[in-house]
Amino acid sequence: MTGHCLYDLPSDILEHIFQFFKVQDCLNIVARVCRRFYKIVNDSGALWRSLKTDAEFDVDSFELVIVNHAKHFRDLALQFSQKRVRYNSPAMHIENTLALCKNLRHLDLSYNTSITTIEFLSEINCLTSLILTGCTSIEPNNTMNCLKYNGSCLKVLNISHCQFGDEHIASLINVVVKNLTSLELFHAESTALFSIHNAREILETRDLKELALSPNWGPPPIWADFLEEYQHVNFGEHFKAHLERIKLANFYILTRKKICNITCVNHLSLICIRICTVYYF
Known about the structure:
The chain is of the alpha/beta class. It is built from twelve helices and ten strands.
C-alpha cells in the first residue's frame, strides 16, 4: 500500500471501517476530516442502524443525529429527559420524529420524561421491543390504548416505574392477554401490586420467558408455590425479594405446601381484648 492512504480506499470499505466507531466519534471526528468522509458518514444507512445514547440533545444536534437519520434506525435508545429539545421545539416534536423511524425493531426510551404519548407506534409496523422504563409523562390510558392497537408484534415490553396504579391492573392485563400476542418478556415492576390471580392470568394465556412484577402480600409462601409451578419462567427481582420474607423469624413452614403460621400483633390484641372484657364485665 506504499503511496496510498485511507482516503484512497473505496467508499464501501470506508463505510465498513467507520461502523467500528461510535456514532458520536463519526460525527465529531471522522466527518470533519474531509468532505468525502462527511458524505459517507451522513449518507450511509449502515452506520445509523443502531444508536444508543443517553446524551441530552439540543435542538440542532437532535436534528443532525435523530431527525436526519430516522429512516435508517433499526435499534434506537433515546434515553433520559431530552428537556432541551422538548422546551425549544414545536409541540410533539420528539414524538413526530419517532414516527419517522418506520424501520425500528427495538426502541428504548428509558427515563425519557419528555415523551407524552406513544401514538407514534401506529407508524412503526415491525417493532418487537419497547422499553418505557420511567417514562412518567405518558398517561397509563394512552399507553394501554396504543399498545392495544399497535402492539401485536411486540416480544419485549418494559413499563416498570411508570405511572400505573392498582386501578389500571385489570385493563393492563386485558391488553397483555388479548392484544400482545407475540409477547415473551413483560416487565412492570414498581407500577402497581399484582396478585397471584393477575400473574396466573397472564401466564395461562401468554407463553412468557420472563415476567417481572411487583407482587402483593400473597403471602410469600403462596408465591413460592406459584414460582415453583412456573419454573420455566424467569421472574424479576421484586418476586425474589418478596420470597426472602419467608426466611424471617416470624414465618414457620409447617407443611410441604408451605402453609405459614404467623405470630402477629393481632393475636396479642385479641388476648388483651379478652382480658379487658373479663376485667370490666
